UniProtKB/TrEMBL annotation:
Organism classification: Bacteria, Bacillati, Bacillota, Bacilli, Bacillales
CDD domains named in the record: ABC_PhnC_transporter
Keyword set, alphabetical order: ATP-binding, Cell membrane, Membrane, Nucleotide-binding, Phosphonate transport, Translocase, Transport
Organism: Salinicoccus sesuvii
Name of this protein: Phosphonate ABC transporter ATP-binding protein
Span of domain ABC transporter: 2-237
SMART domains documented for this protein: AAA
Length: 237
């Protein structure tokens, strides 16, 4: 599903964000990337939807080398790849449902979405995804009235409503307290598996990674230093 072939990324200031990454992630895997702050986790994840662009190598997503895509041709990729951020990135002054419907923008076309019109099927899909993350009763309230955990559930529902093949989650629980973090990770894993999505999550706590990952990838200074199932993780330390 996703294949990094000797991928490197040098930032304009000369800093090497990723160094010669070789990595294959299979369809349906739930992969967690661990590493200290500055290890390159964000850079790696953001390469997969071209929020950042590696400077060499090949990066295959769904049978296409996305490093060859021109900036103007990124819409299909971004629709295929849902993104979840630490800071939720939801629009607080509009309703929860409108936030979730934003997941359809890549499908619906700009004019219709500018007019705020979505097909009935999109509404049904958005509502069912809110239900899957347990906040359907919040659909019509302003997103600003939600707790952090609820806001992150909105962003999960939005990503699902996009009907992507891949979900990238960049430190999705770093702003949440431990009990809420676990609930959100559980929900994320469950819905990913239900939809057969390939999911890549950055976390900076190894114990959390061990609990949810099918497979763990370790990064240090932009280099891949570990790749394996959780049973082998003792080698990491
Ligand atoms: P992590 O997500 O593991 O904390 P990042 O991928 O955010 O790591 O960053 C990896 C390294 O690249 C860090 O040293 C960071 O300071 C550096 N970096 C990130 N973005 C840029 C940028 N735009 N320009 C230069 N260096 C950057
Ligand atoms: P986070 O990893 O949570 O996004 P950071 O503070 O690492 O937070 O990065 C915030 C923004 O600054 C990101 O867009 C990142 O690419 C950029 N950035 C990080 N480190 C550097 C750096 N050394 N030089 C330039 N930009 C950077």
């Amino acid at each position: 599903m996703i294949e990094f072939k000797n991928v490197s990324l040098v930032y304009p200031n000369g800093h090497e964000g990723l160094k010669n990454i070789d990595l294959t992630i299979n369809r349906g895997e739930f992969v967690v990337i661990v590493g200290m702050s500055g290890a390159g986790k964000s850079t790696l994840i953001r390469s997969i939807n071209r929020m950042v662009t590696p400077t060499s190598g090949e990066l295959i997503v769904d049978n296409e080398d996305i490093l060859k895509l021109k900036e103007r041709n990124l819409r299909k990729l971004r629709t295929n790849v849902g993104m979840i951020f630490q800071s939720y990135n939801i629009v607080k002054r509009i309703s929860v449902l409108r936030n979730v419907l934003a997941g359809r923008l890549g499908h619906t076309g700009t004019l219709r979405s500018l007019l705020g019109m979505f097909p009935q099927s999109d509404l049904k899909l958005a509502m069912s995804n809110l239900e899957r993350v347990g906040i359907e009763e919040k659909a019509y309230i302003r997103a600003s009235n939600l707790s952090g955990g609820q806001q992150q559930r909105v962003s999960i529902a939005r990503a699902l409503t996009q009907q992507p093949k891949v979900i990238l989650a960049d430190e999705p629980v770093a702003s949440l307290d431990p009990p809420t973090s676990h609930k959100v990770m559980k929900d994320l894993k469950r819905v990913s598996k239900e939809d057969g999505l390939t999911t890549i999550v950055n976390l900076h706590f190894i114990d959390m990674a061990m609990e949810y990952a099918d497979r763990i990838i370790g990064l240090r200074n932009g280099e891949l230093v570990f790749d394996g199932p959780i049973e082998e993780v003792t080698e990491l330390t």
